[in-house]
């Protein structure tokens, strides 16, 4: 199953059709995506029986797949090659920070560069479909609504200022957390733990890996996070980025006005940001 949002409304994607959930369900499920995630199991059962002849909209997605989550988690150094390019040892436990919710946006946007050194970080993003507390890795996938594409744009000056790094601030400028274009349930993949991920800047492939290279795969991340705090329906987990970021290059490379960033993940789709001056 695939979902997306249009004008903040939950939509079901079936083939070429984009179906407004509230209208097609005659109000059984609301337009608010977060409210739908609260009833995810019931929604999946309803969607499985829905015919594509439901209420359709011709427009594509314009918002993130979960635009108003209560919590946004992000994981640093979750690919061994990224830790190596940063000159750091692979972590023994997940390095966790947040991206504040006002940084969330949709899949095809203009990225306003605030100045300084703005970098790219392609990421697989998990959206939770059930409240998760003290979940085991074995059971973790049953708590996931689906997977989507994300970018963890990072302003490296703000990120590194002060006596300790300011990860959350440096990664939370408006537009720094695009997701989409669709949310895909795990059963759509042959192996949801092994997906090709790539980032291109102006057509040049700068990051290319597979999510099977994560140090802490999705089930382990859910287990570790849910051991500390409940994960709620609609919550996002940015799962980390592979090697190839601009900050680790020689010479270092950062985004400039006019640059185009495309981020894609196998079986899901792609994001596209055009960089503009603030």
TrEMBL record:
Pfam families: FAA_hydrolase (PF01557). One of its GO terms (molecular function) is hydrolase activity. The keyword Hydrolase applies. Keywords: Hydrolase, Metal-binding. Gene3D superfamilies: Fumarylacetoacetase-like, C-terminal domain. Residues 72-274 form the Fumarylacetoacetase-like C-terminal domain. Belongs to the FAH family. PANTHER family: FUMARYLACETOACETATE HYDROLASE DOMAIN-CONTAINING PROTEIN 2A (PTHR42796:SF4), FUMARYLACETOACETATE HYDROLASE DOMAIN-CONTAINING PROTEIN 2A-RELATED (PTHR42796). This is Fumarylacetoacetate hydrolase family protein. The lineage of its organism: Bacteria, Bacillati, Actinomycetota, Actinomycetes, Kitasatosporales.
């Amino acid at each position: 199953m695939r979902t997306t949002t249009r004008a903040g409304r939950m939509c079901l994607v079936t083939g070429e059709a984009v179906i407004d959930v509230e209208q097609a369900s005659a109000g059984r499920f609301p337009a608010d995506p977060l409210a739908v995630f609260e009833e995810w199991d019931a929604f999946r059962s309803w969607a499985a029986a829905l015919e594509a002849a439901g209420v359709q909209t011709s427009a594509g997605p314009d918002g993130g797949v979960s635009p108003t989550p209560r919590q946004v988690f992000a994981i640093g150094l979750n690919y061994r090659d990224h830790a190596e390019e940063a000159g750091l040892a692979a972590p023994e436990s997940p390095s966790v920070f947040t991206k504040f919710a006002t940084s969330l946006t949709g899949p095809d946007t203009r990225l306003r560069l605030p100045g300084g050194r703005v970098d790219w970080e392609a990421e697989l993003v998990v959206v939770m479909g059930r409240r998760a507390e003290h979940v085991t890795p074995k059971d973790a996938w049953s708590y996931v609504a689906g997977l989507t594409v994300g970018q963890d744009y990072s302003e490296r000056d703000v990120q590194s200022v002060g006596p300790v790094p300011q990860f959350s601030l440096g990664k939370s400028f408006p537009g720094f957390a695009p997701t989409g274009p669709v949310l895909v349930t795990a059963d759509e993949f042959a192996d949801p733990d092994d997906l090709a991920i790539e980032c291109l800047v102006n057509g040049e492939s700068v990051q290319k890996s597979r999510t099977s290279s994560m140090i802490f795969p999705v089930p382990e991340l859910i287990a570790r996070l849910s051991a500390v705090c409940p994960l709620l329906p609609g919550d996002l987990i940015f799962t980390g980025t592979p090697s190839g970021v601009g900050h680790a290059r020689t010479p270092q490379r950062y985004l400039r006005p006019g640059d185009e960033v495309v981020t894609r993940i196998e079986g899901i789709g792609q994001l596209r940001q055009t960089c503009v001056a603030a």
